[in-house]
Write a structure and sequence with these properties.
The structure holds two protein chains of two kinds. In chain A, about 75% of the residues lie in helices and about 5% in strands. Chain A is mostly helical. In chain A, strands 1-2 form a two-stranded antiparallel ribbon. The radius of gyration of chain A is 25 Å and the shape is globular. By secondary structure, chain B is an all-alpha fold. Chain B is about 80% helix and about 0% strand. Chain B is globular. The N terminus of chain B is likely disordered. The chains are: A mainly alpha, B mainly alpha. At the A-B interface, helix 1, helix 2, helix 4, helix 5 and helix 6 of A face helix 1, helix 4, helix 5, helix 6 and helix 7 of B.
């Protein structure tokens, strides 16, 4: 909506520009290149080149001799090995569970909080300031905080459930609770982000619709399902996709909390790549894992975009 | 009527304060743990006499390199932010206001989006191999370039939003007055997008400060940043819980300062990025 509006202003201006500015045309043409070239250079040298290099390495066995790389071609062997890599397969499974469970919970909680917060007039700035805090804390610090809180012997969580006589749990150490515990940390970390975006979107809704609804005697639930949710749909979708993307990259918390354990209970894709590529120094195989992961991410993007297009076409 | 509204607000506040406790509780608990002795923490005592021992140990002990890590994070954070914003401001202006063909803008922004989706650990691998081949491994240069690149998609996107908000008429007027492109950028565009620039800068700096997977794999002892140092505390054979808590507490100070002085910008940056 905003873009089309601005483009609307842009078009006639473009026609005006050619007139008086034509003296500067030469200057403008070179500056046009000068301003865009840093972006193009950074993308070419620091994103496309290293990724292409990684794709290349994924067809080799990579070793080191006197500080330089030694490449032995292995064809598609690295890619064939992936399907036998139980760590990676567990990583994919857990990442998907993690992404779906964490983002869904964050969206529901964040939306609820935003809805409540939009109903009050005083103190909104205070709540917003507090809820920004987790977004700004390093993921690794959040891992550290919760590692201490989950601790079997002295963690505050076992102390709290001890008050109501629930036996202490080894939250991160037992298979049944490990992934759930990591998901809870993520919910704590990112619900405020969803809250913030959804509150901003609620605040941007036109008020006259609500006044009309009030005059018509709409109930709270009617207002929610007939007005708020339909109008917020685009914002909800964007926030959801945003969160899914970031959740898919999860690494810091897992690194500190569980290192993928116990067993493969909390193994996630990023952590598998880290182990194979860096810890085990299997650069060729690690590259192949990265390539496959990037491919999966791209497929998810295509699916999301086409789903959105179909929805638009349907509506 | 007013009575019912009052009761309802009271109820909502209670709920929100519950959420506040859940959000702040863990942070207060870790700060508290930083002031405890290891024994007091392990015994699970609720009340304790605050001590500065852990902070002294983290900051000034001979075996601790925390001050060095802090300095490294400041260097990497500020220089990568400066680089990222320079590239992004010029790029965003060029893309949105210099009449590039559509496919140029679309392919650049499209690639930025795809790049943003890639897990940083996969990029860390790609950069690690590349920087090692050109002899830049374990240097600040490598880490600064990596962080600037990592945050470039977001910065391009945000600066695009802010640049488009500048009225074209102002640019026209400046052009008619004979302003060259650098003069136009310096005297019209940059002053007008300053609030947006500040919002983007705060976010890029914080994201660089917090970044872990790339910093972990592109740095050694001398260039390690704060998150890498904190991870080391947790990985030691015998976890020094209280020192880990103290270093974690110190690491969130910059974010707290920014939250106090630049909250408006942070909200603006976070919401503009997603909703426009």
């Amino acid at each position: 909506m905003a873009t089309s509006e601005i483009r609307g202003i842009d078009e006639p201006a473009a026609g005006v520009k050619t007139g008086p500015a034509s003296a500067n045309l030469q200057d403008e043409a070179s500056w046009r290149w000068l301003t865009l070239s840093p972006t193009v250079i950074v993308f070419a040298l620091l994103t496309i080149l290293p990724l292409a290099n990684m794709l290349y390495m994924s067809f080799f066995n990579v070793g080191w001799a006197q500080g330089s790389m030694v490449l032995t071609p292995v064809g598609l062997q690295n890619y064939r090995d992936i399907w036998g890599d139980n760590l990676f397969l567990a990583g994919i499974r857990n990442t998907l569970i993690f992404v779906v469970a964490a983002t869904s919970a964050e969206m529901v909680l964040g939306f609820g909080l935003a809805l409540f917060c939009s109903r009050i007039t005083r103190g909104r700035t205070f709540y917003r300031a507090v809820f920004i805090l987790p977004i700004l804390i390093p993921g690794i610090v959040i891992g550290a905080i919760w590692k201490l809180m989950y601790n079997f012997d002295f963690g505050i969580i076992n102390q709290l459930i001890g008050i109501v006589s629930i036996p202490a749990q080894d939250w991160l150490g037992q298979y049944e609770t490990a992934l759930l515990s990591v998901i809870i940390v993520d919910i704590w970390h990112w619900t405020p982000f969803c809250f913030l975006l959804l509150l901003a979107s609620i605040e941007g809704l036109p008020q006259d619709v609500y006044e009309a609804a009030k005059i018509d005697g709409a109930s709270f639930w009617q207002e929610l399902f007939r007005i708020t949710l339909p109008m917020m749909w685009p914002a909800i979708l964007v926030t959801f996709v945003f969160r899914m993307i970031v959740a898919f990259k999860v690494f810091d918390e897992v690194f500190l909390l569980t290192s993928g354990g116990p067993g493969t209970a909390t193994e996630v894709v990023s952590f598998t790549i880290y182990q194979r590529f860096f810890t085990e120094d299997r650069i060729g195989f690690g590259s192949a894992l990265s390539v496959v992961t990037i491919f999966i991410v791209l497929m998810l993007l295509v699916l999301t975009l086409s789903a959105r297009k179909r929805r638009k076409a349907g509506a | 009527m007013t009575g019912t509204v009052g009761v309802r607000t009271w109820w909502v506040h209670l709920l929100l304060i519950g959420a506040v406790v859940i959000v702040i509780g863990p942070v207060i608990w870790i700060v508290g743990a930083g002031f405890r002795t290891q024994i007091s923490l392990l015994m699970g005592q609720f009340w304790f006499d605050p001590e500065l021992f852990n902070f002294e140990e983290v900051l000034f002990s001979k075996t601790s390199e925390y001050l060095l890590n802090f300095r490294n994070s400041l260097i990497v954070g500020s220089l990568s932010t400066a680089l990222c914003l320079t590239v992004a401001t010029l790029g965003a202006y060029s893309m949105h206001r210099m009449r590039w063909p559509r496919w140029v803008v679309h392919s650049l922004l499209g690639w930025a989006l795809i790049f943003h989706l890639i897990p940083p650990i996969a990029l860390a691998g790609a950069w690690f191999a590349m920087f090692r081949n050109v002899g830049l491994d374990n240097t600040f240069t490598a880490l600064i370039l990596a962080h600037a690149t990592l945050n470039l998609p977001m910065a391009l996107w945000l600066m695009g939003v802010f640049v488009r908000e500048v009225p074209v008429e102002l640019e026209e007027a400046a052009r008619i007055d004979g302003a060259t492109t650098p003069a136009l950028l310096r005297q019209v565009i940059v002053p007008l997008v300053m609030p947006g620039l500040a919002a983007t800068a705060v976010l890029v700096f914080i994201f660089s400060w917090n970044e872990f997977p790339v910093a972990l794999n592109l740095s050694l002892k001398q260039t390690a940043t704060v998150p890498v140092a904190i991870a080391k505390y947790a990985q030691d054979f015998e976890i020094k819980y209280t020192e880990m808590a103290a270093s974690a507490t110190l690491s969130i100070i910059p974010a707290l300062i920014l939250l106090l002085v630049a909250q408006r910008y942070i909200v603006r940056g976070l919401t503009a990025g997603a909703l426009k």
